[in-house]
Amino acid sequence: MQMRFPFKLGEFLATGKPVIASGISDVKILLKHRTEAMIVKPDDIDTIVEAISYLIEHPDKAAEIGNQGRQKAIELFDFKEQGKPLFTFLQQFS
């Protein structure tokens, strides 16, 4: 199954800052709301305002979301991590 994920979102997550993302494509499948990112309804200003308010009012949780988002970015996009299964597979033939 091919996953669809906005490319820039991985870069934003990698910063370690809390990210607010629209729940489009496979974003809601790959990221946990209020754990790895703040997932909002597309085109819904109220949920964006709620997400921003939550992050401002809960700075410790905001930092935790940023750190968890960074870990998710490494898991999903780091070439070294992504290459490990391929390397292991290819070692079978040497």
Give an account of the 3D structure.
The two termini are 29 Å apart. This protein has a two-stranded parallel ribbon with strand order 1-2. The protein contains five helices and two strands. The mean pLDDT is 91. The relative contact order is 0.17. The protein is mainly α and 94 residues long. Helix 1 packs across helix 4. Strand 1, helix 2 and strand 2 form a beta-alpha-beta unit. It has a single domain, classed as Rossmann fold, CATH 3.40.50.
Name the helix and strand elements from N-terminus to C-terminus, one letter apiece: HEHEHHH
- CATH structural fold name: Rossmann fold
Name the CATH architecture: 3-Layer(aba) Sandwich
> Which residues sit in consecutive blocks of at least 5 with pLDDT less than 50?
none
Q: Tell me about the biggest sheet?
A: 2 strands, parallel
Nearest-integer average pLDDT? 91
Helicity range of the residues?
55-70%
The helix count comes to 5
Gyration radius over CA? 16 Å
Secondary structure category: mainly alpha
Q: Terminal Cα separation, in Å?
A: 29 Å
The number of strands is: 2
In the residues, how many domains can be counted? 1
* Strand line-up across the major sheet: 1-2
According to CATH, the homologous superfamily is: Glycogen Phosphorylase B
Q: Name the CATH class.
A: Alpha Beta
User: What is the general shape?
Assistant: elongated
Strand content: 5-15%
